[in-house]
Amino acid sequence: MSSVEAKSTAQVDSKQVADNNKSSTDRAHDDRPSFFKSLLKLRFKDMSIMHRVTMIQCITLFLFAIATGIVIYLNHSQKGINDPQQVALVQKIDSLSFKATDNLFSLTQISYSLAHNKDARNNIEQLRTALQQLENDINSIEQAITSLNASRLKNHLANDLLPELKNSSSNYIQQMYKMPESLKLGQQQVARLYEETSQKFLHPMLIVLLDVQTASSKTAFRQNAIANTTLANAQTYLVIGFLIVIVVSVLSLISIRKSLRNYTYELLDALRLIASGKLNGKITVRTKDEIGTIATLVNSFVTSSNNTLSLIKKDIDKLHLMVESNSQAISVTNDAISNQRNKAQDVASSTALMEKSVEKVADFAKATLDEVKIAEEASDTCRCTMQDNITTTHSLSDRLRATSNAILRVNQMGDQIDSIVKTIATIADQTNLLALNANIEAARSGEYGRGFAIVADEIRDLAIKTAQSTKEVNKTIKELSAAVQNCVEVMASCEDQMENSLQQSSRANSSIEEIMGIIATISDMSEQIVQSCQQQANSASEINLSIANILKLTEDSYETMTNMHGSMSALDALAYEQSALLEKFELSSKT
């Protein structure tokens, strides 16, 4: 198989593998169904993990929105029933009717006392006050009933009970006002009026008031029951919604946990096998979420790796065959060239006998001249390198001196800072003494110097803190000075060593220049010898030139073929190494 055909075959196989890899990757992206399609089919494991988390949040928000809407609706529906103003009116009617009943019992006791002539004057005043209070209570009840909104309670109270209550109360009050006048007619007349009034008006009015109390109480109880029922329903709806949210969340979390734990462990086990070189298996894709997509892409990678490695293995086998074929051809050619070289050497040896001495001298002179030129070039290179080394060493020495000077300036600045710190410490001590003296003078001044004493104490505290800070700064400066001194010593040692290096480099440069002078002299002498030998060997060289050219071409061809044979051996060894590396992978039998 030719190299052109092998190259074209390899390109076609590589393009086919690349197309298969691309198609498998596209299928891995296209296999996952859309979110709404998975939701309609209730295949939650086909959803992505982000879609599941988003679905849980949306369901939670939706259920809470429904529960909130139900609670708002129930509260809105209770506004008309449990209107606070209407509830207050019902309670007011209940309390007023109860109060009116109490007044009736009080009037009964007062009228009984009048009927039996017990403290008539006092009882008359109490009777009038109680009648006035009863009349006010009846009017208040009427106003409260009138203020009620249209309802069954209002219809019952206003149409059935209120007219009878007003009629009975009006007649009862009129008869009670007549009792003081009946005292003039005698005690029996008063007792008879009391009996008639009680039988005709008091008992019906008490019954009506009791009916009003009963109706208002029942309404209040019914309103409370409705409110309690509404509250219980709202709580029930909220609990149901909360339970549904918990169930949905638990189910979704179980699904996510299964995807993230079980499927991930399976994926990790498969990836460990792939990492160990086993490419003959595939991961079972159980879901179509992110884990399933990764598993599909890993399968695509395994398939593409199988295809690629199989193609490489085939190419290596082809390479073995090509190397073996080329090695055989090179061996045949090399043998032919070797025979030609031997014959050319025989002819050259027979024609070179008469010029043997000249050729030996010429060859020796040429070899000497070549070696001298090589030595001259090497010595020039060494001289340039040594000169660059000296220049670099000088530059480094100058930088070390500049660094040493900078460190010395830092040391001097540290001494200046130490002097300034000592001055600050002295000022702090003097300030402390002045503050102490000021405190003493303030103490002598008594009440007038108390404020100044406080200021003096603050100044003294500040002076003490300043003294402490200066001590710490002084300690830090001393440590810095020690470090700078150490740096100065190290820099001085580096400068000495750099000076020694400069001296050694200068001596080496001088020696190299002397060697270059000697080599130049030898080069001139070698050139003169070569010129003389060439002049003497021109005639022999013309005769032997054609044979020498043939021999040279033969030698070159033989060397080239030898190199090619070595390259083929190296290429064959490389192919065997690649084949051994491929043996570490367990490829699928299908590929």
Automatic annotation (TrEMBL):
UniProt entry keywords in alphabetical sequence: Coiled coil, Membrane, Transducer, Transmembrane, Transmembrane helix
* InterPro entries the record matches: HAMP_dom (IPR003660), MCPsignal_dom (IPR004089)
Where in this chain does the record put each HAMP domain? 258-310
Q: Where does this protein have compositionally biased stretches of type Polar residues?
A: 1-23
Q: What Gene Ontology biological process does one annotation of this record name?
A: signal transduction
Name all Methyl-accepting transducer domain ranges: 315-551
User: Which residue spans adopt a coiled-coil conformation according to this UniProt entry?
Assistant: 117-151
Transmembrane domains' residue ranges: 53-74, 237-256
Cell inner membrane as UniProt keyword: no
Which CDD domains did the record assign?
HAMP
Location(s), subcellular: Membrane
Disordered: region residues: 1-29
GO CC, sorted alphabetically, is: membrane
**Main subcellular localization, coarse class?**
membrane
Q: Which family does it belong to?
A: Belongs to the methyl-accepting chemotaxis (MCP) protein family.
Q: Please state what the protein is called.
A: Methyl-accepting chemotaxis protein 4
Give the organism the record lists.
Anaerobiospirillum thomasii
